[in-house]
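Q: I'm a student working through a structural biology exercise. My instructor gave each of us a protein and asked us to get a predicted structure, then write a short paragraph describing it. Mine is Putative transcriptional regulator with HTH domain. I'm not confident about reading structure output yet, so if you can add a plain explanation after the tokens, that would really help. Here is the sequence I was given:
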Amino acid sequence: MGTTFGPDPIAVEIDTALEHLDAGHRVPECKYLDFKEDSSRRGKHGELLLGRREDERAAEQLAGEAACMANTPGGGALIVGVNDKDDEPLLIGTSLDTEWLRRRIYEHTSRALTVDVREVHVHDARLLIVRSPTALEPIKVKGKICWRIGDHCEEIDATSWHHRHQYSIRYDWSAQFSNVSLEEVRPAALDAARAFLQASTDEAAVELVNCTSRELLSRLNAIDGEGKLTNAAALVFVGRPEPCLDYIRRDMPGQDSGDRVRIGGVSLLEQLQRAFAVARAYNPLSHVSSGLVEGQVRQLPERAIREAIVNGLAHREWGLPDATLIEHEGAVLRVTSPGGFFGGVTAENIITHPSTSRNVALTELLASLRIAEREGIGVDRMVGDLLRRGLRMPTIREIDGPYVVTTLSGVDPDVAWTSWLTGMDVPELMQNLRTLMIMRFLTDHLWIDEDILAPYLQVPVEEVHETLELLRQTECDGEPLLRPVRGVPDEALPAFILSKRANKLLDMEYANRGLKRSVPSRAVTARQYARHRGRISTTELGAILGVRASNVGQVLKGLMADGVLQPSSEAMAGRGFHYLWKGDEAS
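A: Happy to help. First, here is the predicted structure for Putative transcriptional regulator with HTH domain. I'll explain a few features afterward.
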């Protein structure tokens, strides 16, 4: 028997409407529900056609209607394939493909709206249920914001929308109470909950371990006075018929799975506990003798693995039946989560954007069980844990579907770099995520300025300035860690490089391990610098590369021959001579 989530007013409206349609009765539209034809089923003169699997006109029309529902507090749904003409059959159906329509609605709403599209059959008619979640920011279609007033959509300006929604947009499905009772809680889920709490070593959490089942759920805000669980608790302690997650282990990409965790009908806690255990078994230990982390360490930081998996469950779109996919291939872990970014989060601001979840109660419940971070610093910690191990930063991106994909790589840790950082003996700076990110960027790209760091750190330029000032006051073996790039005009934004001593010590760390530091070529460095700053001179390039200015003239002349640079004067010589950036962004 499946878990019964609810009550859900929109689901109730949908079920009631389908019952009436099945009986052959027309159903009045309401705030949460609207009936729509598939416009591909109408010809130029109003005649009925067979319809298409893919039709842009239909998708655009339905995107506007779905956005209107999303802009309405509580969201809403469309039932597509219902005729509103009295002289024609009530149910005319639709041939539109569900996945195609979901993707096109997402695109037509500027990638802001992820709907759930499912098909139902009433008599011989195929209908589509298009369910829109509540929008946290107004969704525009063709430059307009519409929302539902009674049984129709009306345009509203952004200011009014925000004013009317400030108290009503925080509808949280996971906080609503379900039809699941305390008696249905799985004993194995309670055992898993107590194990997570015990492992946290947090006194307040450990105190919950010995509570009775009812007391535990009550203190977790997971149950009401009548013994009914919230939807979040029903998912966490009882589960759903479909698997919540699908963990697949492969030794390398393309191979058959060596191990798999895909279990439907059991609690999310049991699935998580099993997935964590299997992921740990395939995350081997190695010994690190120097660096920011010493001793026996895992190939991938365990906290980063856990954070990636939990984020893929806590913030996903639970209206979709898909499992959160976890692919563990060699030293790479990739988590693909149903539903796109939410609440203003993007790939460009995910490190610093205030934490926003579709499922606030679920996120808080997982945090109370010490499985997830409550403070909204989980992504920060994931980035920091990887960098301190000398690993690449995680990539977190949105792909068509939409899905959010998080990738962690434990391949080739840069132990020389972490050892160099440790040798500076400035631990407080290395615990600061921004300074750590800047040191990684500077090592890889050789130079920095405030403008190039702002999007990388995902903060305003003013905050970059504060962090740079902190680094400029830092010493490396008795010398300043950073120094300005020579040749930058007084009126221009300063650029910085590592000091000679810092560079020498870094190169020695690589040499001691029989390695050579990997840096961009001279031409690539010059091109990147000139593109970003609009100009470059031999003095600047020589300072960045740590060589004489006279040794890099041919590099810049070569870029001029390539058509990406042009001289600042026809004489191509003299005091202040430099090159200007000429190439376009594709260069």
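A: Here are two points you could use in your paragraph. The radius of gyration is 29 Å. Residues 9-171 form a domain with the Methyltransferase, Cobalt-precorrin-4 Transmethylase; Domain 2 fold (CATH 3.30.950.30). It's a good idea to check both against the output above yourself.
Q: Great, thank you!
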